């Protein structure tokens, strides 16, 4: 008889962790859904210097190396496919920024090509990355 009373008392004092686990799981899902993922360009560039450089967050990074090759999401992209690739990335994150990272030796025509494609798609927040001098 005393064994039954002890078991009942132990069960009454036990804390049910199921609601807490449910809350933690819902929070995890919330953070995963609302997270912004940055697509790295896939190539390192030497950015030009500027006196008015400021740090901004970006979700779409496009790099132009010294050979005027365009890199988006770790893949080299042909000039004719820049708009299509940017459309795909912008559809994944419509609130995202576009940052163009040109090399010091990259031509301004490539920067203009990417900026023009971004404006045609509807990306309003376009920046050019530089190093602060």
Automatic annotation (TrEMBL):
It is a single-pass membrane protein; Single-pass type II membrane protein. GO terms for biological process: protein transport. The chain crosses the membrane at residues 20-38. One of its GO terms (molecular function) is transmembrane transporter activity. It is found in: Cell membrane. InterPro entries: ExbD. It holds the Pfam family ExbD. One of its GO terms (cellular component) is plasma membrane. Keywords: Cell membrane, Membrane, Protein transport, Transmembrane, Transmembrane helix, Transport. Belongs to the ExbD/TolR family. This is Biopolymer transport protein ExbD. The lineage of its organism: Bacteria, Pseudomonadati, Pseudomonadota, Gammaproteobacteria, Cellvibrionales.
């Amino acid at each position: 008889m005393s064994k039954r009373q002890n078991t009942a008392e132990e069960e009454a004092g036990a804390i049910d962790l199921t609601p807490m686990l449910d809350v933690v799981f819902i929070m995890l899902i919330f953070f995963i859904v609302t997270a912004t993922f940055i697509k790295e360009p896939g190539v390192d560039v030497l950015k030009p210097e500027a006196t008015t450089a400021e740090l901004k967050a970006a979700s779409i990074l496009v790099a132009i190396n010294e050979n005027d090759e365009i890199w988006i999401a770790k893949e080299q992209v042909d000039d004719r496919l820049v708009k299509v690739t940017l459309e795909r990335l912008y559809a994944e994150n419509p609130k995202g920024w576009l940052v163009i990272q040109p090399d010091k030796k990259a031509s301004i025509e490539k920067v203009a090509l990417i900026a023009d494609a971004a404006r045609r798609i509807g990306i309003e927040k376009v920046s050019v990355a530089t190093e602060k001098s």
